[in-house]
Amino acid sequence: MKNKIFNTNNDLTGLITRLTLGLILFPHGAQKMLGLFGGYGFNGTMAFFTETLHLPWVVGFSVIIIEFAGALSFAVGFASRIWSVLTIILFIGIIFTSHLDNGFFMNWFGNQKGEGYEYHLLIIGLSLATLVNGSGKYSIDERIVN
């Protein structure tokens, strides 16, 4: 089981996909967890998820953890396959609950009622590549299996 989770191709592909995921997800996770980048922090985000969106607390908590801890784990290459699966599930959920009605494209010109789901598909694609390839070079996963 350990090899299935932590095994990785020792190449630059995994390094590039996981670093991209980590760098893109981190600001979103830091907004939700720490209140950085104009975010509301953990308590404010949990209140928004549970009181405004009426999500169960475990869903709100999971979103915050996946975006914050997942981003850090991607960056260092720890358990990237697990974080990839969680990220895929999260972003599929985000598409179907919040963005599907807004169409494909992002709201570049402010003339849509909200953001489309193209960004989410990119995150899913990068997560799929990381799921297949593993964490790649210079990762904790590489050190665990060797």
What's the helix and strand layout?
Elements: H1 2-6, H2 12-34, H3 41-52, H4 57-76, H5 80-99, H6 118-133, H7 140-145
Helix pairs in contact: 2-3, 2-4, 2-6, 3-4, 4-5, 5-6
Subcellular location: Cell membrane
Protein name: DoxX family protein
Transmembrane segments: 55-75, 82-100, 120-140
Structure description:
- Helix 2 packs across helix 3 (about 40-50), helix 2 (about 10-35) crosses helix 4 and helix 4 (about 55-75) packs across helix 5 (about 80-100).
- The chain has one domain.
- The chain is globular.
- It has helices at about 1-5, 10-35, 40-50, 55-75, 80-100, 120-135, 140-145.
- The model has no long low-confidence stretch (mean pLDDT about 95).
- By secondary structure, it is mostly helical.
- It contains seven helices and no strands.
- The longest helix has 23 residues, at about 10-35.
- Helix content is about 70%, strand content about 0%.
- The chain starts with a helix and ends with a helix.
- It comes from Runella slithyformis (strain ATCC 29530 / DSM 19594 / LMG 11500 / NCIMB 11436 / LSU 4).
- It is found in: Cell membrane.
- InterPro entries: DoxX, DoxX-like_oxidoreductase.
- Pfam families: DoxX.
- This is DoxX family protein.
